[in-house]
Prior knowledge:
Elements: H1 2-6, H2 8-29, H3 51-57, H4 64-74, H5 78-82, H6 101-122
Helix pairs in contact: 4-6
Amino acid sequence: MQWVIDDREAATAAKAADSRRKLFDEATAQGWTIPDDITRPEPTRQTMLDFASLFARYDAKVLYIPYRLLSAHVYPSAKGAEAYVDRETLELHNHADKPARPDLVLVAICLLQAAQAIDGLTD
């Protein structure tokens, strides 16, 4: 988000080009016929640092570890999906099917680490 605030036009253009490139690549991989007037966008020159570097740039490196630990639970990932899959039948459910206590403890630890880091940044 900070990149969008710092350089909105570049961030928006890069995101749009990346989205079109991924769609073009996926359509090509699936054997779709691509009209001649539609071309694959070239990658935009990277003006944004990788996410870990952004944490360092904004003096928030200490927040990166809690972010990584929490993101596995809230973003589409194998860890996030784990609670919704029956381990025996591999059937997917629309509700969490396992106790969340261990995950809640991890989330609490990450939130405490993030709170300590933010406290240091606000001083």
